[in-house]
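Data deposition worksheet. Section B asks for the primary sequence of the deposited chain exactly as it was used as input, without tags or linkers unless they were present during the calculation. Section C holds the resulting structure in token form. Section D is free text for depositor observations; keep each observation to a single sentence. Incomplete worksheets are returned to the depositor.
Section A, Depositor: J.P.
Section B:
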Amino acid sequence: MNLRYTIHMSFKNKFSKEVAKIVRAGLRLTKHNATSLPGLVAYKLDKNILNELSQNTKFIFVTGTNGKTMTTHFLVNILKQKYDKVYTNESGSNMVQGIITTLLDNPASEDTIAVLEVDEANLVRIGQNIKADYVVFTNIFRDQMDRFGEIYNIFNKIMDGMKVMPDAKIIANGDLPIFNYDQMKAYDRSYFGIRDKSHASDDYDLDPELNSDGILCPNCKRVLRYRLNNYSSLGDYSCPTCDFHSPEITYEIDRLEKLEANYSSFYVDGDYYEVNVGGLYNVYNALAALSVAKEVGLSYGEIYEGLRSQKNVFGRQENVEIDGKNLTINLVKNPTGLNQIIDLMLLEKDEVSLICLLNDNYADGTDVSWIYDAYYENLHDLDIKDLYVSGIRKKDMKRRLEIAEIYAGEIGEFDYETEIRDIIKNAKTDNIYILSTYTAMLRLREVLGL
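Section C:
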């Protein structure tokens, strides 16, 4: 009976994989996205397919609100300096079906390594089938309130995922207070953080950034105070009335050398690193990847080269040229991430054209009220020559930008699926910034042939 069952399951696994590969080949042949549907087909045919696909593989999961995709790409590029093949869900398709698609070619008979971006709510589901060796916690901010609720719900979902992977080591952002809560103590963990003393106070006398998430002490509910506040609630913190304070940082940036629009450099324990992307949030992403690489045992040279050679990925300061115009495309989905992108945009010295795309599909979050918590007003310092809005909620986007008073002219409305080429061609500048929610960005890339 057991032999018959084993034979049946083996046939079922192989059949499911082959059907999924045929679906993938068909999608690629017709130039369609082949990141999720093949995995969905395999999962429908065999609910245990992930067990088969994960044999003899060291797994590193990357989860959190912001930075999953960029951290994953940084880490994969580092690991490729040592390993011939690194499996990863490159497109950021981080649900079960996307991960199955990623592992379709993973040979069960060989020792391999995989870095998987995992949606916070799906960590428990993935963890029931694949046991991670390391799990990276990037951060937790308010995001898709209709789906996740407050940040404490997101944290609980992540910790539920860890319960099914109790032996996995956590590599967490030590500058975020919520990752120092008591629930973390049950797990082996190391922390990374930024501690540039040139930006720090002599004492814990700084307030967190306005509208920050998770700034109350979990013990006595007092507002945390900071000696160093990098952005939002991230930094070196301490409770003014109890002993809750920042954890010991294992992987620490002790000096930020340069922060430019498309370049950053920094020192970790005296070692110099550089990345060809801008933004302090991307420095955190690079540090997260660096921390895991050190845990895995890669050398300084391998880590340095992996970080230095990483380029921007789709929708993350993605630079493309269309009709002689330079486009910078950024995915936006919550206030904290958008505020960091706005700060980065303010490094721009030339005049710009700005396009904002706002959708409210399930993958974007159906509640778009978050746009009122973002600091669009800061864009007043940008030299905006023309401004356009599009997407399902373009009228909401237009109203928000009118309230921000960042542009004196008329804000144009258009259909990005049919008119984006004309908007780009007729833009008043050659420097176009696009801020887009997730589903609009995916469709935009299809329309532009990216």
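Section D:
The chain has a mean pLDDT of 89.
The radius of gyration is 22 Å.
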